[in-house]
Amino acid sequence: STVTAQAKTYQIGTDVTYPPFEFANKQNKYVGIDIDIMNAVAKEEGFKVNIKPVGFNAAVQSVQSGQLDGVIAGMTITPERKAKFDFGTPYYKTGVVMAVGKNSDIKSFKQLKGKRVALKTGTAAADYANSIKKKYGFKTVTFDDSNNMYEDVTTGNSVACFEDQPVMQYGIKQGLKLKIVSSPANTGWYGFAVKKGQNTELRKKFNQGLKKIQANGTYDKIVGKYLGNKT
Ligand code: GLN
């Protein structure tokens, strides 16, 4: 006979809104590629998750301080973060792009001189923008979530923002009045993260489950549900 262990519940932090990876649907339920992956993996591996949409930076900080067990939030695996977090298997490709207003004439970083650029706190895109800020002479303003950052550009307060390519592309397709004007920089991958040296069992279960849902078609089904089937 089999002994059924009590299913463990893990507290998982995520962004407030980062479509198509996480967002509240019309029923105010959190859905998206990340959320569906997490739920599918949990089901596959027999654990429970409590999804906490606290915002990207807050989720990252909360895992760092041990208040949350893990973060799935379109989080880019970077060398700096690897010093503080253990990442699961990379699951989605990304890169940083610059976006400007739909009718803007700005096409290059050079045209940002003396202008204001909107960034999102604690993100890989903000790190990238800050790394070229001095060279191109622009000013920055930061926001805690992507929507407020986009709005600063669409209202004309800022002339540009820096965001992950898959997220920016999706948002524009959904009607955001922005356009992408640079090719992806600092390309990398999204990964599920736990605090370094902590929650090893959770990370291992995540990897096992991810492998299973990639093999059985669930992963492709999830991505296809939000992005349409790619060729
Ligand atoms: N991929 C970016 C990062 O890891 C942004 C993530 C997000 O805004 N949710 O910093």
TrEMBL record:
Keywords, comma-separated and alphabetical: Cell membrane, Membrane, Signal, Transmembrane, Transmembrane helix, Transport
Compartmental location: Cell membrane
Subcellular location, principal: membrane
Family label: Belongs to the binding-protein-dependent transport system permease family.
Protein's name in the database: ABC transporter, permease protein
First-to-last residue of the parent protein present: 25 to 255 of 715
